[in-house]
Amino acid sequence: MSGPFLPSVASAEDSGCFLVSLRLRMPAPIRLRELIRTIRTARTQAEEREMIQKECAAIRSSFREEDNTYRCRNVAKLLYMHMLGYPAHFGQLECLKLIASQKFTDKRIGYLGAMLLLDERQDVHLLMTNCIKNDLNHSTQYVQGLALCTLGCMGSSEMCRDLAGEVEKLLKTSNSYLRKKAALCAVHVIRKVPELMEMFLPATKNLLSEKNHGVLHTSVVLLTEMCERSPDMLTHFRKLVPQLVRILKNLIMSGYSPEHDVSGISDPFLQVRILRLLRILGKSDDDSSEAMNDILAQVATNTETSKNVGNAILYETVLTIMDIKSESGLRVLAINILGRFLLNNDKNIRYVALTSLLKTVQTDHNAVQRHRSTIVDCLKDLDVSIKRRAMELSFALVNGNNIRGMMKELLYFLDSCDPEFKADCASGVFLAAEKYAPSKRWHIDTIMRVLTTAGSYVRDDSVPNLIQLITNSVEMHAYTVQRLYKALLDDISQQPLVQVASWCIGEYGDLLVSGQCEEEEPIQVTEDEVLDVLEGLLVSNLSTPVTRGYSLTAIMKLSTRFSSVNRIKKVVSIYGSSIDVELQQRAVEYNALFKKYDHMRPALLERMPIMEKTATNGPTEIVQTNGETESSDSKHMPSIAQPANQANDLLDLLGGHDVGPVIQTALPTKPASAGGELLDLLGDLSLSGGPAPSPTPSVTISQPPFLLDGLSSQPLFNDTAAGIPPMTAYNKNGLKIEFTFERSNPNPNISVITIHASNTTEADMTDFVFQAAVPKTFQLQLLSPSSNVVPALNQGNITQVIRVLNPQKQQLRMRIKLTYTYKGAPVQDLAEVNNFPPQSWQ
Amino acid sequence: LANNRKIRQGKLRLQKWYVPLSDPQKKKISREVIQMVLARKPKMCSFLEWRDLKIVYKRYASLYFCCAVEDQENELITLEIIHRYVELLDKYFGSVCELDIIFNFEKAYYILDEFILGGEAQETSKKIVLKAIEQADMLQEEAEAPRSVLEEIGLT
Hints:
Chain A: Keywords: Cytoplasmic vesicle, Golgi apparatus, Membrane, Protein transport, Transport. The complex is a heterodimer. By secondary structure, chain A is of the alpha+beta class.
């Protein structure tokens, strides 16, 4: 053999001298510490990488040579480089070889390498099983310890299955060094292969009689794991409660034990684990809970609290007291401990106190309330986690008694907190205000405060909720719109605020300009100023498309509240050619409203009635009217009450107002009719479309199922039920409207009325619209009319079907509204219809 | 169950995983946790919420010691566990400093593995843990045959 490092061997005979044959090999691989030193001198990442690559190459060839001597050193170096982030998979097999070696040093590094480089996802790891098995039975306990540790750290299910028996054996040994490790190894086995839990049961028998703290600690961990996994085990181990109590008592009562002392407390780790196990055993069990009552009280009152270690034990004690069936005195004691924690200088202690209080606030509400002011103080803490918990807890503690004070603190918090909190805090404030507002004015003020300080963080669903709230606070309308208007003057960047404000101005703008506010000094503002603001929103690039929609609609609504109709018309027509499709559509529809349906405009743009919430909290369900087209309107339209509720309020409103809200009919579907071009724009509509019915405040027809049962929606001509006479509902100015009756078959509570409109004058009545309203105990549905022209001189009728639901069989009354164009002039009339024949409603 | 980590200004000095994860996963998690911990200000508490776990960390000189524990763990006792480990290192190395851990990382692991097994403390007595390490070290010394100079330079 010859080569660069291998000199030819000179034979003794050749040279006459006695030469020791030398075989030069590669120099010994550099030592670990030297490598570390070298790598640390690298000034750049590239330099480091180069060194690493060079060393890895050397190690690789050393591995190839199957060199036993330096394998350990090489693997150690590999582990170091792996920790720096470099790949080291080629060392995996070498680890196995080290584990199989007889030398302790090799095993030590080998097992470490296995734990760092291998895991159960590589097949290679299974090769370890046999080695571990052998090492578990090794004569040296430190080797056994290595094996137990490795198995307990990264053993796969297969390995655990194979070696569970060995672990179980070691669990019964008298060698405490091994027994404690076996216990934790068993925990791992059980976690990996839960079915094997049973086999460890016998070995647990006398675990707690051990004196050795290591064994005690790991035994308690093992017992805890078993109890958590199996209700049967739990029941079985309940009998250990007295023993656990005794051990804990000894720990507390015994004098100073140097070996286990931590700041004057004896083995806090063991105490905490025992307390945890007691918690599990005492939960839902009266007897066990009672048996541990005294010791818990003792720990709670006697534990030194000056250092973290004492508080760690108190914390665990509190958790246990709250979870088991403890008597109320003990619970109060626990909450008071938490209260004291809140005052602790140590922020960690404050943190765990808040976390625990959050868990108990539902069950022990009154006790937690006593610490309310301390909790509120924590809102000012610098730590984010503490602030968050304090906020959650504060909201949980708000009630009717403390709402004013609490809200002051929470609003102050909202002002100054980090953005990550604002959305949740705003939602919380709204919820609390809704539940406990002491007055409507306070409620509106609170909403205003949130909108102005955190208006851009408010959740989307808050906007419809707030609108509904405002609508329903009837006596606050003037105040609300004034405050919102003033807010807009200050700042138009916060979209939720702007949207709510636009809506309100559109709705209550008349109150604004007439200076009707009672709650505070009314401001002087002109119609033009208001319109300036709204138009400003339309053009501002701070406004989102949704906001612009709100704004345009608000402007439109003001056309019935303000006198500057021309200005509004102009704005609306400008936006008819807006690039924004949504805006364009609205503008076009509103334009049409001005042009062709002007007589309907007042009705359509009326004040919103009081709305019922369809859902309790969160986003309200939007009942789509005939406009599945406009999804954005679900934002614009707050929850629309079912017709029943509409009818509820109609009669009330009918009484007091000149123009009461009415249920609009659907307009005729004939293409030749006025709705024609609008239908094209609006696309397919399920019902006959009216002029921009969706954006209007009044509810158009939504069809509650029960009114539809059985009958088609075709107008029914001249149907008379047996015996119900027809009646004349209206007869004026040549317009006569007759009602004929029929009972709906499936449902006797429904009356079907057909109106017949006829015209005795010499001119047609065109654009005829019939509307009706009924008292609140009724529900009414208007189907499509046959046409919208009542021909002159009785040459034809308009017929239309009304269906009335009368579950309480009350006397039917109706208010009707008629609008039509006669000889070019719009005509409008209201009438009461009270002369219904009894048979029609009885 | 915990993952332990020692971090120095972004450099990992030691990491122990008690759940099986791939290398890329471990790297990602380490990076995230390191970032979060380094971003913490002194006035903040020692606990971080991260995914469904809690990170308990404590700074000793230039090193951060972090433990990721499950949600129901007692954070305060976890701090004590961390402290105990640092005490063990301190006793073993004699006023331990970061360099000790850098140059003797495998010893740091050995000590950790004598204190914690499968994520739980296996021994609550400082003395006993240190004694076990001492004995194992002696075994190691006996096992290592002394190397001659010739061996070292590659000449047997």
